[in-house]
Amino acid sequence: MAKKSTLSFDKDLFKRSVVYNVKTLYRKSMEEASPQQIFQAVSYAVKDAIVDKWMTTQEEYEKQDPKLVYYLSMEFLMGRALGNNIINLQAYEPVKEALEELGVDINAIEDQEPDAALGNGGLGRLAACFLDSLATLGYPSYGCGIRYRYGMFKQQIRDGYQIEVPDNWLENGNPFELRRPEYAKEVKFGGYVNVYVDENGRSNFKQEGYQSVNAVPYDLPIVGYGNGIVNTLRIWDAQPVECFRLESFDKGDYQKAVEQENLARNIVEVLYPNDNHYAGKELRLKQQYFFISASVQEAVAKYMRKHGDIRRFHEKVTFQLNDTHPTVAIAELMRILMDEYYLTWDDAWTVTTKTCAYTNHTIMAEALEKWPIELFSRLLPRVYQIVEEINRRFVKEIEQIYPGNQEKIRKMAIIYDGQVKMAHLAIASGYSVNGVARLHTEILKKQELRDFYEMMPEKFNNKTNGITQRRFLLHGNPLLADWITSHIGPEWVTDLTRLTKLKVYADDEKAKQEFMNIKYKNKIRLAEYILEHNGIEIDPRSIFDVQVKRLHEYKRQLLNILHIMHLYNQLKEHPEMSFYPRTFIFGAKAAAGYVNAKLTIKLINAVGEVINNDTSIRGKIKVVFIEDYKVSNAEIIFAASDVSEQISTASKEASGTGNMKFMLNGAITLGTMDGANVEIVEEVGEENAVIFGLSSDEVIHYENFGGYDPMEIFNNNSDVRKVLMQLINGTYSRNDPDLFRPLYNSLLNTLSTAKADTYFILKDFEDYAEAQKKVEEAYRDEKGWARRAILNVACSGKFSSDRTIEEYVKDIWHLDKVVLPSKK
Ligand code: 26W
């Protein structure tokens, strides 16, 4: 029988399936069902279509026995699944029609789905884009992570302040997930290690007196675009182990049962909402070992179901460590190889070091994971023994290469000063270390990881990040997607480099007009969203200048808002000045304990409150803080943006990926030469971006040798002085003039001992204001703007995560593509 192709989607069958699901799930007719119930029913109907492909894909993997990559990550910021799955099934139009015929609006149904927000920001969203690309390119792969009961908190703004609200994303059930109890694994914590010599004279290391939890996997389908491939994201839930029978327990059993139950309950309870900030919490290490032990056990078990020789594990499996968070995988693999398969240290080490590869996502010192050995060894006694031995051998190696150089050991040892340094463990034990943008990788090699690079240069490589165009253009911006397809055909969906064909339209008057009309419609869509969610009216004809990303001092939202205060001052002083209306849009979550970040949110809202309500400026400036910035509203925001704010202190943003999403949607980058901005400018040309500020070399030079005094700028620049004084004279906090003083203090040396303006905000202020003027000038020339915007889209091809994944495959993972027989 011929296989049913995705294109011959059976609309009537689908409609019957939705109606049937509404009936059997809720005993309701379509008319009676709530939007949420219809969402569930539609999702189950879509899942039906996915499951066949899922089985076929996995059977094919079994047959072809290809090498697999396990992408190990504490975070997968997936967003919504329904729309994306339908898109990748190439069934969006027919499903939309089918639903229309049932009297249902597909957008309203998609809006019923909670975001799967199992991540903080860049690192988690990158993992999600990678899964999409891996499936679309046909590479056999698993994502492995944690099924947090509560994901990233929901943000509410009350009185201008951020309030964190728990994200109960599983409240209505997750229609796409599949519980797989048959693959459950036991994970052990604590206790002590005993050594027994067996009859063969082998030492057996046994962890005893431990507490354990059961890791139960839930599988989520990852649908490839139009290729029939469905890969798996496996996220682990924790269940208490059955350790005693109710009818016969003594006091010790009872105590232990209660403790184990608490452990199981706590371990997957919530995602840590810290981004780029290490807090050293015991529960976090438990989370790490929990999902890593389960994933590594399963990877080994799966391999052994098919293969006899564990010594060749690395020929069929590779582990990519998404930052240091999963690095305990190195020691866990060593443990399993030695303690369960009786490999010698050397054999186990050979396998492990050919299996594990590490990606670095940040150079921020406060993000580095360093676990106190007291905690690490108490929680993971056997794993700690192994890390100690890895360290002992690594230090010996350093001594051999750099005899008598104590300094090298101090800087490079895995265990030092009573801490286990996870990055050092990952670099010493992995076969690859990669940064996430060219500049970032160079900084790793020359600065942060210089000693490691000098000792093992062959491990280091760059993989510039990317994003999936299926979600951030095809799904998020259907008007532009259709326009592009009508001009250059649909191939860009799986080959983004095709967008270069759009270049010719940058000088085509009709095309420019159409392009700007689409942008205008998308701005109306965003304006409606903002009116509905924020109650603020904005003018879609104004310049939409947007900064959406996590709130962090290095990302410099403060520079943006200080500049807005300055613009407002100018407008008040010179009401007659020529001024193009601007809407400044922010979206950002702050880590719950990050005081200056939260205060910056309050400042943005306070400034907005004053400016938005000052009728004397006749709406020329609006400031909007979008509540609860997340993947689903990001799609709408990128589509509607004119200006992409990428203004981190040079050297601090490893790559950025929002910058790429803006570019793909035709926004112009206003940014520093940082992270992937450098490569964006290289692709699109400096004349089609607006670049300002210190270079990374200059920043690093000031950091290493000093020579920057923010007070000098305060003294000499009256614009800056005026804005800073407004932080402490109650202009934006009438009832509490001291409210924003901590932000003022962070910028100026008032106590001579304190460091100030460590992110060079005042240093870059004037240049930023100049750059903003250039933006305004450029926008006045509508045709010139359209030209630049189209060129940004046309030159964004490099930034597809498809390209990134192909590079990982070629340089690091060495996987083969799987093509399904039906697609050959
Ligand atoms: C231990 C606490 C913690 C939590 C998260 C430390 C570090 C992180 C992440 C590595 C932070 C992160 O998301 N980094 C971002 O990674 C993106 C994907 O590579 C880059 O594009 C961003 O520039 C980088 O900030």
Automatic annotation (TrEMBL):
InterPro entries in alphabetical order: Glycg_phsphrylas, Glyco_trans_35, Pyridoxal_P_attach_site
Catalysis: reaction(s): [(1->4)-alpha-D-glucosyl](n) + phosphate = [(1->4)-alpha-D-glucosyl](n-1) + alpha-D-glucose 1-phosphate
EC number: 2.4.1.1
Reported cofactor(s): pyridoxal 5'-phosphate
Family matches, as Pfam families: Phosphorylase
Domain of life per record: Bacteria
Enzyme class of the recorded protein, top EC level: transferase
Keyword Glycosyltransferase tagged: yes
Molecular-function GO terms, alphabetical: 1,4-alpha-oligoglucan phosphorylase activity
This protein's UniProt keywords: Carbohydrate metabolism, Glycosyltransferase, Pyridoxal phosphate, Transferase
Endpoints of the signal sequence: none
Chain's role: Allosteric enzyme that catalyzes the rate-limiting step in glycogen catabolism, the phosphorolytic cleavage of glycogen to produce glucose-1-phosphate, and plays a central role in maintaining cellular and organismal glucose homeostasis.
NCBIfam families: P_ylase
Family label: Belongs to the glycogen phosphorylase family.
Name of the protein in its database record: Alpha-1,4 glucan phosphorylase
Organism encoding this protein: Kineothrix sedimenti
